[in-house]
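Format notes (please read before filing issues)

Several people have asked whether sequences and structure tokens are stored in separate files. They are not. Every record keeps both together, in the order shown below: the sequence lines, then the token lines. Line labels are part of the format and must not be stripped during preprocessing.
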Amino acid sequence: MKSGAHDTPPAKRATKPSEERAAKRTERSAQHQKQRRKVRRSFWQRWRWGITVLAVVLIVGVILWAVRSQQSGDIAGVVTYSNLSRDHVTGKVTYPQNPPVGGQHNAVWQNCGIYSTPVANENAVHSMEHGAVWITYQPQLSSQDIGQLQALVHGHDHALLSPYPGLPAPVVTSAWGLQLRVTSASDPRLAQFLTKYEQGPQTPEPGAACSGGTGTPDEQ
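Then the structure lines:
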């Protein structure tokens, strides 16, 4: 017997409520896992960005510090002294620094220039008050080293060079309130110190002369 022209399709199986709930739970679980993965990715991305920004800030800070140090002319090893008296006195003065960097001093300054014999502390301190840089060296320094120091000072109108018995280092350069000890006459910091502090910002009496005082230098 032939079937009808239009057979009725079989009815779809009804989804049970328990199956629907299970499907929804599975879907929600998948969504939660996806969200957690997204949060984790976002966290690590922010962490990496934070580290990168911190590294950049540190690098820029180091560069700025180096540039500012170079611009300001900071010289390694320079010791600074403050609260120095500027009173004029007669006779010898006992100074806490060796050689002195300031304090009470003679009313007459030491004429700037190159000396082959020691000069009086009290007069040299007055010269530093006028902006002089005083370079001292141990008397036993070699003639070659002394020649280097003489060449460094030559032509500077506010610079003193003299031997100094009992010096705590082979060469010590001083300005008012400032001092640098070095072990070699070829140390580049000597020239830097002279350039920065001859009539430099530390000078109590800027523009004051370093001639017309006492002493006759061997060479200007």
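For reference, the curators noted about this record: Confidence is low (pLDDT under 50) at residues 65-72. The first helix runs from residue 17 to 72.
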